[in-house]
Specification:
Blueprint: E1 3-9, E2 16-22, H1 29-58, E3 65-70, E4 74-75, H2 80-98, E5 101-106, E6 112-113, H3 115-132, E7 136-138, H4 144-152, H5 155-158, E8 176-180, H6 189-195, H7 206-222, E9 238-245, E10 248-255, H8 260-265, H9 271-274, H10 281-290, H11 305-313, E11 319-332, E12 337-357
Parallel strand pairs: 3-5, 4-6, 5-7
Antiparallel strand pairs: 1-2, 8-9, 9-10, 10-12, 11-12
Helix pairs in contact: 2-3, 7-11
Length: 366
């Protein structure tokens, strides 16, 4: 071991003595250089963060950042995997908007658009534009069928993108999109006039009543708790898709309200009954479908969801599916069996889906 001699004043003998101490190993020059660089990097990060904060304080009234969010390949809500991806995509957009960032949606990877997921996405687009203005934009989809559909339902025009294609694909041109904030039959009158004569049902006129009940439930109950509290939304909006395909008519009605389970749990007349009970969302939806009581307590009002179920029980095939929060309720008309389901991630509002058989193979109610 090497030692280094250090002269010190000795207070005992009043002489300058030599103190021997072990010699420390010299530091590695590479490590000194690395530490110096890390210190510089840290200083640069602090200066950059300070500059960003200063810029944000100076322009706090506007949006200063644009974030690019990639859309999923499949827009679908009724299976767990695609549901997880779609909800994560929507949550990312919501978080960026809440952080006062502009958002640009990249549809480069989108290939499949199902009525349930597509309608749910379009409903969120309308809600965001009502809350944040035109802070959401997008690019043209790479898939031509996807671009045709977004052009057909007016999404590209809403995003200030000019139409480039002619809507002619068989998978697109029969889709019909309706939306509104009032329960006025004129919104879906075109659908009822074209679909009612072709539905394979002994009482076809009930289909129009079911649509009216579905939209009326949204306007009167979806966005307000029974106690009077309302959710944060521009208005009581609803959205509807219809699509005839393979001898069937698919109709989807969507809202972004509180959902059926939350509505039932907040009702004062059910508080004592639900106290101490663990009811999952699927069972709550089943209870709402089987309830004979009207939420408005008015004699002239219909039964809502029970009336929809009664209509589907007289179908030869198809059925009814209701999705709300983490739960689902499905009725199959072919075997007369109803099933409850549970998802890991909740959706906002309620999604009601009909699968109605048609007497003709292809029906175009344009």
């Amino acid at each position: 071991m090497k030692y280094i001699a250090t002269p010190i004043n000795c207070y005992n003998c009043r002489l300058i003595c030599i103190y021997l101490q072990p010699m420390r190993r010299a530091s590695n020059p590479k490590r000194i250089d690395w530490l110096f660089r890390q210190q510089l990097y840290q200083q640069r990060r602090q200066l950059r963060a300070a500059g960003i904060d200063k810029h944000r304080r100076r322009y706090s009234g506007g949006l200063i950042v644009r974030s690019i969010v990639h859309a999923p390949r499949v827009f679908r809500l009724i299976d767990e995997d695609n549901r997880r991806v779609l909800l994560h995509f929507l949550r990312m957009i919501e978080e960026q908007l809440l952080a006062k960032c502009r958002v640009k949606i990249n549809f480069a990877e989108t290939e499949e658009l199902h009525p349930c997921g597509t309608l749910y996405f379009l409903a969120h687009i309308d809600r965001w534009r009502g809350l944040y203005g035109d802070k959401v934009s997008c690019n043209y989809p790479r898939d031509k069928v996807v671009e045709e559909l977004f052009q057909h339902v007016g999404l590209l025009e809403q995003m200030q993108l000019s139409p480039r294609l002619t809507v002619s694909h068989e998978r697109v041109k029969h889709w019909h999109f309706f939306k509104g904030s009032h329960a006025t039959p004129q919104y879906w009158q075109q659908l009822m006039e074209g679909a009612i004569p072709d539905v394979d049902h002994p009482h076809r006129g009930m289909f129009g009543d079911c649509l009216n009940e579905a939209v009326t439930n949204v306007v009167q109950h979806a966005y307000e708790y029974p106690s009077g509290r309302r959710v944060r939304a521009p208005d009581s909006s609803w959205w509807m898709f219809s699509k005839p395909q393979d001898g069937k008519l698919f109709v989807v009605v969507c809202d972004l309200g509180i959902g059926i389970p939350a509505h039932l749990r907040d009702r004062p007349d059910l508080a004592d009954y639900l106290a101490g009970r663990v009811w999952r969302d699927g069972k709550m939806i089943e209870a709402a479908v089987g309830s004979e009581r009207s939420g408005t307590q008015l004699a002239h009002r219909g039964k809502g969801l029970p009336e929809m179920l009664d209509f589907c029980k007289n179908l030869s095939s198809g059925g009814l599916a209701i999705y709300s929060s983490k739960g689902s309720y499905r009725y199959s008309a072919s075997d007369g069996v109803d099933r409850r389901g549970k998802f890991q991630r909740p959706i906002k509002g309620t999604l009601v889906m009909w699968d109605l058989p048609l007497e003709g193979q292809v029906v175009n109610h344009e």
